[in-house]
Records
---
Amino acid sequence: MLLLPLVLLAVLFPAGDNQDAFQDPIRLHCIQISSFANSTWAQTQFSCWLDDLQIIGWDRESATPIFLKPWSKGNFTDAEVKELVEIFRVYYFAFIEEVQKHASDFQLQYPFEIQGTAGCELHSGGVILSFLTGALGKMDFLYIKNHSCVPAPEGGRRAQKFCTFIHQYKGILEIEDTLLYKTCPGYLLSILEAGKEDLEKQVKPEAWLSSGPSAGPGHLRLVCHVSGFYPKPVWVMWMRGEQEQLDTQRDDFLPYADGTWYLRATLDVKAEEAKGLSCHVKHSSLGGRAIVLYWGYSVSVGLIIAAVIVPCLILLLCLALWFWKRWSYDGIP
Ligand SMILES: *[C@@H]1O[C@H](CO)[C@@H](O)[C@H](O)[C@H]1NC(C)=O
Ligand SMILES: *[C@@H]1O[C@H](CO)[C@@H](O)[C@H](O)[C@H]1NC(C)=O
Ligand SMILES: *[C@@H]1O[C@H](CO)[C@@H](O)[C@H](O)[C@H]1NC(C)=O
């Protein structure tokens, strides 16, 4: 049993460039966010993610999951998918109803929000660990440890009371246990297999430079844009020669709809110090090479083309015309 994940890991991480296609561990998690506005109005949203990649969404109208990738169902049969969807639909409606029914027992004051995160993660070596945590507002409330509900310290007496309450529902706990410790690991391994081609794809970044709003008079903000790359890990740094400029600021990664990423790295410098700076980009899709863009260089290359090559061409053309005319007149007897 332990061998299979090891083999899979070897397939997923062939020695070479795309070793960092995934962080370790590989994390599959589903998020539930339930907002309760008042005793009659509530809304729940589900989504499931493989690391940063969303693979399942939720259609609130029909209360059904949306499988976002062709491989989002893993190796589950249609019957298995149907059964799971049914479990989630029952849970979806029952959760809201039960929380509204017991809101006052647990001193929950409207409006409030409940978040749940559940899933499993594959560690190098093939170990799969499952997890489930619940939060109330921004506070940790409870988690599952060794198959049972444990109140989080921040959850206080209310969380203790809730864990005692939920332990009465043996049926629910059994289903949850199966989903967490059996369904999740099997599903994770099967989507890694089914989606292998997609997950291991390598998309090269494009990079360009621009200047941002300056940090003050006599200063320049140099912006290095890196766009459309996959997988996510990337190294972007402003450098002077071989020296990394440690003031380089990296913004947050922004996702594109096609699953690729955008990142920018900025550096504030005195205007006269901008010359000689360059932006370096390293990414698994580039092999061992880096993209290097020199500040001011791309502009001058354009200018050189405009200022030198175009007049040269015109001059050549004039010369050619002149010679041609001379030659044709000379040809006239
Ligand atoms: C409950 O909240 C919803 C959404 O904010 C609102 O439209 C509705 O009028 C509220 N109902 C009551 C009884 O307060
Ligand atoms: C986990 O729980 C079981 C009983 O449900 C118990 O026998 C076992 O000792 C627990 N293990 C740990 C590490 O707490
Ligand atoms: C689906 O894949 C998992 C993990 O690879 C495996 O344990 C399970 O037996 C597979 N199920 C079927 C029906 O092939």
---
Amino acid sequence: MIIGFCFIIVFAVLINKVSLQLTVEVTVEGFIGGSVLLPCSSTQHDLKLQDTDVFWRNKDKENICDLIKGTESLESQDPRYKNRVQTFPDEYKRGNFSIKLSDLTHADAGEFNCFITPSDEQETVQLIIKSGPTPPPPPTESTDQENHGPETQILDWWKILLICVFTLLPVFGLSYFIFQQRKRTQAPI
Ligand SMILES: *[C@@H]1O[C@H](CO)[C@@H](O)[C@H](O)[C@H]1NC(C)=O
């Protein structure tokens, strides 16, 4: 029974990990006047570039850039992002549609979205702008894993604790029930 319980815990933790990977939300930090890599990757393995469109948008749904069938399209780019976006065409075929945003200002802080069609993937990048007198080289990319603050860690532990309690309850209930049954059947002897 203990072993079974352990399996349930391991399983629950695994589910937790998977669900974390599916909700892709990344936080990156940039400095005023500096540049930052906004990461976006497709998990699709048989990605066909000639069918794939990627749309980068900011929190106000303004156009940062479109990658139409593997080609950068700046036709409907918001003037705010003119000459500030660098794309990496060599990376497209690997499903990497990250872009680099430069000349950062405080106004750039906030949410960025990357939509990939037709696979309907969406990634959210939170950009934090820091101002410093001597900006060190900005951390260009921080992965999902590294960015779990203490809060999300605590949240994870709460989830595991809840799962434990809810799996333990029926296990104890069942063993109590079996115990009672045995007592009843053994009593007449
Ligand atoms: C995507 O491409 C950029 C630019 O070359 C690179 O810095 C980044 O590490 C790549 N990301 C992945 C997940 O390969």
